[in-house]
Design brief:
This protein is α/β, with parallel strands linked by helices. It has 23 helices and 9 strands. The structure holds iron/sulfur cluster (SF4) (2 copies).
């Protein structure tokens, strides 16, 4: 990385959120939490090193060259460093800012631009396009042509043969617009259906609806919703993220809590207003929506004490929970999933074990696992070894990207472990009927 000030290519401060970078006091407490620093041991691949580079670029002491861009791309945006930081450095916001500025100014190959357009502008925002892609992928998988067809669109090292099978149409069909509470009704929620979730993990969405209804909530799935733009924001497409934020705000107009079962989407939606200038009327609407965002576990945990399940045989034990980065670091939610899982384990008569590195990134990180499969797998391999040592036979997460990553890694490692979402565990344990209170007639 060039640090000469002679020809400061891209040294203007628009590339960097300079004010936030000044919060860093260089203490180094974040270093041991950073998965890329653990891989390389190199300071420039650490949070402190990246902030130093950002500052150097902003001050014209370094060039925003290919090496600088590589260190920004190497970061998983897992935000583990934020949890460790005593100075409150908002690393995630800084990195999103820099990636957005780099994407706008960095020359990209025709292939990269085409794939970004295809993914961010054609597929993710349009339910029909995603549905077609999933149907095509399922057909390719069932005829054995999948790796050959997908190879031109994926990095060379991508483990396409371990990609999970796209489920049948029955699982991918849209959720009902409204599902009434069963038994005692305690409230109502709106639910984010997501973009990739319905295509790959429709069963998770159905478990979310079924378990919330069983816990006493009416569940509304408003029309007009699409991708929330989280993947766009994390990967430098700020314009795309803003457009999808506006659609999401319109779709979820109202007062109901917005339940999100994807940690990455929840973390993004809680900070949606940062996409807009304070003077922009969308800023206030985004802030109002952000206040209504609740992770699935936050809502379900309020009712789990009343749940009565008989789940013998429904879950294989021991069960282990792996914290998604955007739940524990992005939203500071750690206890609620464990409350739910402990209740389910009691009902199923199995034990829950803690993974010592449960808060470290699994390497999924949005589309990081597709863009940098070798780094992603190396990061997961460390956690796979911990999982194998734990003896767990069920691994639970709360984010579709993490679920995909774990399923692929566990298949690659040949472990006998089933991967489930928290909502699937709750539904298995308590889906048949939960309220201790007597049912009352529906209004
Ligand atoms: S976000 Fe994650 S990968 Fe990036 S610097 Fe922080 S800890 Fe390291
Ligand atoms: S912990 Fe925070 S203040 Fe300390 S070096 Fe890391 S980012 Fe800077």
């Amino acid at each position: 990385m060039s640090t000469t000030a002679a020809t400061p290519v891209g040294s203007d401060r628009s590339l960097v959120d300079y004010a936030k970078s000044l919060d860093c006091i260089h203490c180094g407490l974040c270093l041991r939490t950073c998965p890329t620093y653990q891989l390389t041991g190199v300071e420039s691949s650490s949070p402190r090193g990246r902030i130093h580079l950002m500052r150097a670029v902003a001050e014209g002491r370094a060039n925003a060259d290919a090496d600088f861009a590589e260190e920004m791309d190497f970061c998983l945006l897992c935000r583990h460093c934020e949890s460790a930081c005593p100075a409150g450095v908002r690393f995630g916001e800084m990195m999103e800012h820099t990636r957005g500025a780099l994407a706008a100014t960095r020359p990209q190959s025709l292939r990269t631009r085409f794939l970004r357009w295809l993914g961010f502008r054609v597929a993710l925002p349009h339910r029909f396009a995603l549905s077609l892609a999933a149907a095509g992928m399922r057909a390719a998988q069932s005829t054995g042509l999948w790796p050959a067809i997908a190879r031109p669109f994926a990095p060379r090292e991508a483990g396409l043969e371990h990609f999970p099978k796209v489920p049948s149409w029955a699982e991918r069909r849209a959720l009902p617009r409204s599902t009434p509470a069963r038994g005692e009704r305690v409230g109502a929620v709106a639910m984010l259906e997501g973009c990739v979730m319905p295509q790959l993990y429709g069963r998770v969405n159905r478990a979310t609806v079924a378990s919330l209804a069983a816990l006493g909530f009416d569940v509304h799935v408003p029309a007009g919703q699409t991708c929330c733009g989280s993947l766009h924001a994390h990967n430098g497409d700020v314009e795309g993220a803003r457009a999808l934020a506006k659609r999401t705000i319109d779709a979820f107009d109202g007062e109901l809590p917005l339940v999100v079962n994807s940690a990455g989407c929840g973390s993004h939606l809680r900070a949606l207003h940062h996409l807009f200038e304070p003077s922009d009327p969308w800023h206030a609407r985004a802030a109002a929506l952000a206040k209504r965002v609740r992770d699935y576990s936050e809502i379900a945990a309020t009712r789990i004490a009343t749940a009565q399940g008989s789940a013998a045989g429904a879950l294989a034990g021991p069960l282990a929970y792996d914290d998604p980065c955007h739940l524990c670091h992005g939203q500071q939610i750690r206890s609620q999933p464990r409350v739910l899982l402990d209740a389910a384990c009691r009902a199923a008569g199995i034990a829950r074990v803690e993974l010592p590195d449960s808060e470290s990134c699994c390497g999924s990180a949005g589309i990081y696992s597709v863009l940098r499969p070798a780094d992603s797998q190396a990061i997961l391999d460390v956690k796979l070894a911990t999982l194998a040592r734990s003896g767990a036979r069920t691994l639970v997460t709360a984010n579709p990207g993490c679920q995909l990553q774990w399923e692929q890694g566990i298949a690659r490692a040949g472990l006998d472990v089933r991967v489930l979402h928290v909502a699937e565990v709750v539904e298995r344990a308590f889906g048949a009927g939960v309220s201790a209170a007597a049912p009352r007639p529906r209004p």
